[in-house]
Design brief:
single chain; mainly alpha
Length: 406
């Protein structure tokens, strides 16, 4: 009887072991991604009555609605999340993660017209879909547009293709720029270079260049890397400033964490899609290595980086730490960096895991941030629980760790 019991227990244990993910990182990332799926409803709520609508065609006139889940809006941070879910679905061969991105894009295209017709404020930051129908800033179309390109590889849709071509035309021909071609914003003052915009532009352009097999797109993207490096990189700290004021020819003082994260992620996106024989590839690799050496100087003992990267009295910040970890891990795996840099990413991941609480929410994520010249502004930016700015990059970093562990 004892032998039978032992055999049964061993069999149960073996079945349980077989059913588990391949490693702890896989389990952690799946649980985190599943928590996002569980909160994604693709529905609308009447702000007054609480009534639920699944499609804007069902909504009566004269009521004020909001989108139920923040994961299903049209925002640059959701663009990264869409791409992360697609990569997770492909790596694990689990369709539910791919479906998240498919549903997000279809949900927006099915419903944005209602908001366009009912909202009097036509500025791009009006939620949930203002960035889709205005397209008057890189935030509107760069990151989300890159996820539309990825979705269109599986789902052929003329509406998606039209949007992709419109976004390409906007970035290449209509966005504000300096006389030397550097993409800029009209805020906080005219012709300000924002570090954020390198990612907003290149996440899209790198994929569009490959999609169209168009050297002119890649050349335009490479020019942005070289020019942003010229305006924003500080050789003394080996970090990037958040911005450059063209009118006074001066940098924003802050070496903001997420600004440096946008820069490095942009470079990885470009290198991932750039033809191997492009003559500027060695220069891009040199710039990437220069940034990684700089970042390595400021990594904390925990493995995380800070809100102000070079200021030890600023808080440890999750989104930039995830961006750096993913970028360095991927760069090593792809051969953009020597394997000796891998320990930076591995230590970063050890730190990131401590920021995921028992409810699978990320702690200490800097809230969305504009640009200011006083460092106190960055010091005091709120830390938001599970803020959307860290979701996609955390999953991407985890996927790189899964690849290493497997």
């Amino acid at each position: 009887m004892i032998n039978i019991r032992v055999s049964i227990l061993l069999l149960i244990g073996a079945v349980g072991l077989y059913a588990q993910p391949k490693n702890n990182t896989e389990l952690l990332i799946k649980d985190f991604a599943d928590s996002i799926l569980s909160e994604s409803t693709w529905r609308f709520i009447d702000k007054q009555s609480g009534e639920i609508y699944t499609d804007t065609s069902e909504i009566p006139e004269g009521i004020d609605i909001r989108i139920e889940s923040p994961h299903n809006t049209w925002l640059y941070s959701i663009g990264i999340l869409n791409i992360a879910m697609l990569e997770l679905g492909e790596y694990l061969n689990e369709q539910k993660y791919n479906d998240f991105a498919f549903k997000n894009i279809r949900f927006a295209f099915n419903n944005y017209r209602w908001f366009k017709n009912h909202q009097t404020d036509m500025t791009y930051w009006v939620f949930p879909f203002g960035m889709l129908y205005t397209m008057d800033a890189l935030d509107c179309c760069g990151s989300m547009g890159s996820s539309v390109i990825e979705v269109s590889k599986t789902i052929a849709d003329e509406e998606y293709l039209a949007y992709i071509n419109k976004a390409a035309d906007y970035i290449m021909n209509k966005e504000h720029r300096l006389p030397d071609g550097t993409l800029v914003r009209p805020s906080p003052v005219e012709m300000t270079v924002w570090a954020d915009d390198l990612y907003m532009a290149l996440s899209f352009l790198s994929r569009y260049g490959k999609m169209k097999n168009d050297k002119t797109v890649f050349d335009f993207a490479i020019k942005q890397v070289l020019n942003f490096h010229k305006y924003l990189f500080n050789p003394k700290t080996e970090l990037y400033h958040h911005g450059w004021y063209t009118d006074i020819q001066k940098n924003v003082s802050a070496h903001w964490g997420r600004a440096n994260g946008w820069i490095i992620m942009a470079q990885i996106n470009l290198l991932d899609h750039l033809p191997q024989d492009h003559p500027e590839r060695p220069k891009l690799l040199e710039i990437l290595q220069e940034q990684v050496i700089g970042l390595s100087k400021y990594q904390s003992e925990s493995g995380l980086w800070r809100q102000l990267v070079d200021k030890t009295d600023s808080y440890l910040e999750t989104s930039c730490s995830a961006m750096f970890t993913w970028s360095i891990a991927r760069a090593v795996r792809k051969g953009y960096l020597d394997s000796r840099y891998e320990s930076i990413a591995l230590r970063g991941w050890e730190g990131l895991k401590t920021r995921l609480n028992k409810d699978y929410q990320l702690e200490s994520v800097c809230k969305g941030t504009s640009m200011r010249n006083d460092l106190s502004f960055y010091y005091r930016r709120p830390q938001v629980l599970n803020d959307k700015h860290a979701l996609g990059s955390f999953i991407l970093a985890g996927i790189e760790m899964m690849r290493k562990e497997n």
